[in-house]
Amino acid sequence: MYDRSAMGYRREPFAPEEWYHCYSRGIDKREVFETPEHFARFIELLYLANDTKLIDRAGLRDFSHEEILSLPRESPLVAIAAYCLMGNHFHLLLQEKSDHGISKFMHKIGTGYTKYFNLQHERIGNLLVKPFRSKHVSDGRYFKRAVEYIHLNPAELFERGWKDGVVRDMHSLERNMLTYPHSSLIDYSVASPRIERGILDPTAFDLLGSEIATLSDILTDAAAYYAELPKEFRM
């Protein structure tokens, strides 16, 4: 299943109460997150755009990152279980909370971030591949695998052979993964919560419970999940 229109609406709607792994990348595989500020802006959008009300981002120009992620919201469009941003792509694990919630949310973050990026770079036109792709997460075990795969994306930065089961230093990889700031892995693994934990839906923690495995235990499952994605989106 995948989104079919430039506006983010599908002919076949996302099913209520079901989880979907949604992902996209920069056009021509270009970098879309080039600086820490770019990553922070998109993470703020994950919080702000997840609301049925419209975003007045211009009115928040003087707000800090922490203040933005503490703002009250009216009603969420989606539940977010996991996310990870890489230089030229991003992954989200979403469940609808309102009619057309996933499509509306993906449209809001895509449009909002593209406007921000284009203004900074004095460019026009699309930044992210359209339509975004989505993969149905059909059951509890698959939910766990999707979370693991999303969180393991930064492993490519530290151990390029991990998808083939080749890891030179597992302890170093685990340490590096837990310091990667543009992923929700930290929020599942560290006792002291970050402000970014507010992006995630509490039901996701309930679904996973004590199911978070050690990094060494999840590499095989994550590699298998990766192999099932469309070739052009194996990022």
How many distinct folded domains?
1
Q: Which of globular, elongated, flat, extended, rod-shaped describes the shape?
A: globular
- Span of the ends, CA to CA: 18 Å
**CATH level-four homologous superfamily name:** Transposase IS200-like
Q: Give the rounded overall mean pLDDT.
A: 85
- Quote the beta fraction: 5-15%
Count of helical segments? Answer: 9
Largest pleated sheet: 4 strands, antiparallel
* Largest sheet: spatial strand order: 2-3-1-4
- Uncertain residue ranges: 1-10
Order of helices and strands: EHHEEHEHHHHHH
- Can you tell me the CATH topology? Alpha-Beta Plaits
Helical coverage, percent range: 25-40%
Structural class: alpha+beta
CATH-level-2 architecture? 2-Layer Sandwich
Total beta strand runs:
4
**Class in CATH?**
Alpha Beta
Rg, Cα atoms, Å: 17 Å
Secondary-structure blueprint:
Blueprint: E1 19-25, H1 36-48, H2 65-68, E2 78-85, E3 89-96, H3 101-121, E4 133-137, H4 140-152, H5 155-158, H6 170-177, H7 185-189, H8 202-208, H9 215-228
Antiparallel strand pairs: 1-3, 1-4, 2-3
Helix pairs in contact: 1-3, 4-9
